[in-house]
Fold:
Amino acid sequence: MNVLYFAWVRQRIGRGEERLDLPAGVATVRALAEFLERRGGGYADAFADLKRLRAAVNQEHVAFDAPVAHDDEVAFFPPVTGG
Amino acid sequence: MIRVGPDDFDVAAELAALHARAAGAGAVATFTGHVRGEDGLAALILEHYPAMTEREIARHTAEAGRRWPLLGVTVIHRVGRLVPGARIVFVAVAAHHRHAAFEACEFLMDYLKVHAPFWKQEERVGGTSWVEAKTSDDAAIKRWT
Structure:
């Protein structure tokens, strides 16, 4: 899968994009976020409070209980501030 | 017409192009957003999620077209570093009558604020900081549901 990070999530993690094999036991966006948080360092910092984050799967906004599959593009970012 | 990119735009030219596409339109409502001239603000730096942005805006222009009888819509959103006074966003809606044009224009801005994947950083003398999303923006879209 492709995982993308934007705004301060990208800054804390130190990269905007990475390829990842779907980790065993990860079936939802929330489980993926928790998996990434366990990597520690900037990931732990970025994913410390999921209430501050939003997610998209395949370029559509989703809730954290949405399913993820191995060929999905998943993005994590703060609430948007355009306009 | 949806366009996202670093380039500035010419409001008069965009209005003329919209009106040419929207044959018979009796009303065109527009909104132009600029970088506010706040104390100490050197610039806003906007980033976005390119693969998602135009899709997300298109979803909302399609929804506006289902709610109101529209003849044409233009949405332009800039990204990159924008100094105070610079244009950031432009929404123009053409319709037969003014109520549809006014309402759809406001609907599109309200949805864009809450759903279009853009993020702003403020650049000041002391450094840069991310703009926090406003709960008032979330409240603004409730009236359309």
